[in-house]
Amino acid sequence: MHGGDEVVAAPGGPPQQLDWKFSQVFGERTAGEEVQEVDIISAIEFDKTGDHLATGDRGGRVVLFERTDTKDHGVSRRDLERMDYPISRHPEFRYKTEFQSHEPEFDYLKSLEIEEKINKIRWCQTANGVLSLLSTNDKTIKFWKVQEKKVKKISDMNLDPSKAVGNGSVASSSSPKPCLANGSSFDGSYDNLSNDFSPPPGGLPSLRLPVVVTSQETNLLARCRRVYGHAHDYHINSISNNSDGETFISADDLRINLWNLEISSQSFNIVDVKPANMEDLTEVITSAEFHPTHCNMLAYSSSKGSIRLIDLRQSALCDSHAKLFEEPEAPGSRSFFTEIIASITDIKFSKDGRYILSRDYMTLKLWDINMDSGPVATFQVHEYLRPKLCDLYENDSIFDKFECCLSGDGLRVATGSYSNLFRVFGCAPGSTESATLEASKNPMRRQVQTPTRPSRSLSSITRVVRRGSETPGVDANGNSFDFTTKLLHLAWHPTENLIACAAANSLYMYYA
């Protein structure tokens, strides 16, 4: 591990608990500042190297950050080694650029407004220093390339702009620019020419054609290379790159499509769960992801709490799954909320592809793809909210879609909760690590006491939710919780213990 404080595990034992520290915040709100809806972050993603981070927001913008601590800024390694003070080497990022990825649209055929909100961002392979990424809203996926371009300037003009006006007057800014045959107009020095300009006595000594020269200045340029549209009747909830570097999938409620990055005009439908009669619909697709190393395998989750692993080599339309992962319902535990809270909102493969992490409303579950009898570990995220399920249903919070993530070494998992809290659990054999952090400059300010050992069986849900027996809005540790401040989106750095998470319009980073 390269981050801040190195954690040394006891021989043969689980790794020690990490000590999380605040690293950075971008877009921090001042006290009482109102958050604009369009500024709320809706997607976070590190690239494979961890040197770049992308966020998308509800206003359709994508903001890129780049890592700065790996650059020595001109100081040689030998000089760094001679310094007698420890150097903080935890990942640090800086703002790089931003661009407008999606605009609000209107589907005239269906009389439907299409939001510009970015649902997912996925990085593609980087080549020749060009950053590539996919971004999607509800209907349209776009392939972006971001690269540095050297600024080109026109030099060697015949006229000095300061002496360009013959009679001393300055040309009006409203005067028309001379136009070329193709409709484009001159820029630069020609803007200052007056219509009544007369050449100097004796004429111009020589006619020099303007020359375009490349300066040392660079600009970051984002270009939309391809638009993959008109392939989904329902809202896109997932996109995922294939390890072959050539294809990707997009998933909506009822279908998963396979695309080639080079071809935007067509896609192949590989999963279709739409019944002949929509009244027979019992579950929908909630999330989908390619296996990190096997290009023929992908997994998708459903609103019934199951995960299906499919193999593209079996058939063109993957109606049958290779494996089904689901946890049998505990006898006598069924209630009105059982199916709602069982719905999986996010799945992620571990880096080696051996495990799948899933998030439902109340828990995180870790599945071994070689064992479909049940999860190998279950982590209670906010068990103290179970008596509040009725209130959560009434204010629609029970339908919130929380994301989850795994550390690069596969030893820990993380997910968000309410009151801008997020949870980190150790998932190594024998680990009892469990931490609750708040997305603020003091992440350890709020500590919720929870059972240290991860429980494999979920406690039953009481059929009747009694009101008034507990103080409303107070968790098991006496802290108040706020359903309006929810931490839905977070990402773990691929090689270091660094978590980036979104609290409304603010991006917080923590390292250990």
Automatic annotation (TrEMBL):
GO terms of molecular function: protein phosphatase regulator activity
Pfam families given in the database record: WD40
Highest taxon in the source lineage: Eukaryota
Matching PROSITE patterns: PR55_1 (PS01024), PR55_2 (PS01025)
Repeat found in the keyword field: yes
Subunit record text: PP2A consists of a common heteromeric enzyme, composed of a catalytic subunit (subunits C), a constant regulatory subunit (subunit A), and a variety of regulatory subunits such as subunits B (the R2/B/PR55/B55, R3/B''/PR72/PR130/PR59 and R5/B'/B56 families). Interacts with SIC/RON3.
Family: Belongs to the phosphatase 2A regulatory subunit B family.
Function comment: The B regulatory subunit may modulate substrate selectivity and catalytic activity, and may also direct the localization of the catalytic enzyme to a particular subcellular compartment.
Identification of the protein by name: Serine/threonine-protein phosphatase 2A 55 kDa regulatory subunit B
